[in-house]
Amino acid sequence: MSNWQVGFYLFLFRLFSSLVPRRLHPFFTTVGNHLIFPLTKQTRECVKENLRVIVKGQYSEKKINKLAKRCFQNYSQKLLDYMSMHRLDVSNRWKLVEREVGEEHLARALKRGKGVICVTPHLGNWELGGYVLASKGYPVNILTLKEGSRSLRKYEEKVRLQFGIHTIYIDPFQESNLAIVEIARKLRENQIVALIADRIVGDRWVEVQFFGRPTKFPVGPALLAMETGASVIPVFVVLEKRMKYWGILEKPILFTNSAQGKGESLRQGMEKIAESFERMISRYPDQWYNFFSYWG
């Protein structure tokens, strides 16, 4: 889509989320999904293909189709919530976030003084996790690719700055990347660097087992952790039954050189990340937003 089209849809979603009470959102996302889902054949089939791998033959095709349809609806809700993020602060975050689990893992990791790398898949409302942590006073930096749409990039930057979140853009194809230097500095200042880590962009990856299949995972978090000594914490923000989110922080993963060498230590650490992602995606398969053939 062109920049003006993205800007127009951003405006519509933001206007809708402002005018329509959130308790009514499920009605509209359900109606909209009934109209859109039948028209998106290629994307729909990709989602169903991914779901078949995730559920490992435990569900019928009817159940798979139902999960895929709910995935589209959940994603619509995620976009609506994202468009209302600018109204969130420490006093009213309970309106979206019902429960927070595992913050003690983050506090313990920061006591090491070497920073924390928070990794998450495209699951639930990943942006919300950074906002909640920043609203509680944690120094948060978002590591991301530069968004193609100027309108979306400006909106993201504006909301993040409102919470004191710093955005670090990285180009994985650039040989000498100043962003890496900035990230390492933030970690040495004992700050948090958050990134999505279930898709590869560029040629730096390691192959791990993910849902029983050899899968390429980006190796960036592991290299940063080994270089700086930072802890890696898997983080998830998932939508629960009462239309409220749960924020979940798991135990830190430490990347240390083993007797087998740096390469083996890196692979073992990445396998732990993949296991963590697999465990949570298995619980919330209809909130994993990869609208393409992931293993294709």
Structure description:
There is one protein chain. The protein contains ten helices and nine strands. Strands 1-9-8-2-5-3-4 form a seven-stranded mixed sheet, sandwiched between helices. The relative contact order is 0.16. It has helices at residues 3-19, 25-36, 41-55, 61-83, 103-110, 126-135, 150-162, 178-188, 220-228, 262-283, and strands at 97-101, 116-120, 140-144, 166-169, 192-196, 205-210, 213-218, 231-239, 245-249.
The best one-word shape is: globular
Helix and strand run: HHHHEHEHEHEHEEEHEEH
Contiguous low-pLDDT stretches (5 residues minimum) are none
Overall strand count? 9
Distance between the termini: 24 Å
Radius of gyration: 19 Å
* Residue share in helix: 40-55%
> How many discrete domains?
2
Major sheet: 7 strands, mixed
Strand numbers in spatial order across the main sheet? 1-9-8-2-5-3-4
Average predicted confidence as pLDDT: 88
**Structural class estimated from helices and strands:** alpha/beta
What is the count of DSSP helices, taking H or I runs of 4+ residues? 10
Measured by DSSP, the beta-strand proportion falls in: 15-25%
Provide a brief overview of the structure.
This protein is an alpha/beta fold.
Sequence-ordered SSE layout with sheet pairings:
Elements: H1 3-19, H2 25-36, H3 41-55, H4 61-83, E1 97-101, H5 103-110, E2 116-120, H6 126-135, E3 140-144, H7 150-162, E4 166-169, H8 178-188, E5 192-196, E6 205-210, E7 213-218, H9 220-228, E8 231-239, E9 245-249, H10 262-283
Parallel strand pairs: 1-9, 2-5, 2-8, 3-4, 3-5
Antiparallel strand pairs: 6-7, 8-9
Helix pairs in contact: 1-4, 2-4, 3-4
